[in-house]
Specification:
two-stranded antiparallel sheet; alpha+beta; Type 1 dockerin domain
Length: 158
Amino acid sequence: MNNKIFVLILIIILITALLFAVKNGTYQINPGPCTNCGNCVSHCPNDAIYYNTHIWNYQINQDLCDGCGNCVAWCPRDAIYFIPPQYIYGDVDGDENVSSYDAALTLQYSAGIISDWTEEQITSGDVNGDGNVSSYDAALILQYSAGIIDEFPVEGGK
């Protein structure tokens, strides 16, 4: 594929990906201090908190939680705590998912458009393992997110 066409495709993906929100982690309820008052439930904008009758306590559905933190602000017992996203190669935005948005961010970083990445983001973005974050890394992340490859070179893939 012509390099100009490839870069154009990545730019289009970047613009599209910027329209999506980034998930920065979720929350969990510690049943010990929780008194089941329900304050968290009434202040969750995503209806992510539900009562689990098996454990007789509220729980947070991690798939619905967007990490807004409203539940923490309304908990009188400090029973809700933050769960940071796990470290995954190619997941430079930290949402526990490798997507075209990660490819777009990697391309921006490699082009110098953004420069304030953490060491974890740099390590996560260097999916070919050469010690640099480049447009090639962005291309590999894009291929991974599209299912074309199932492993990055840094993980032993070809």
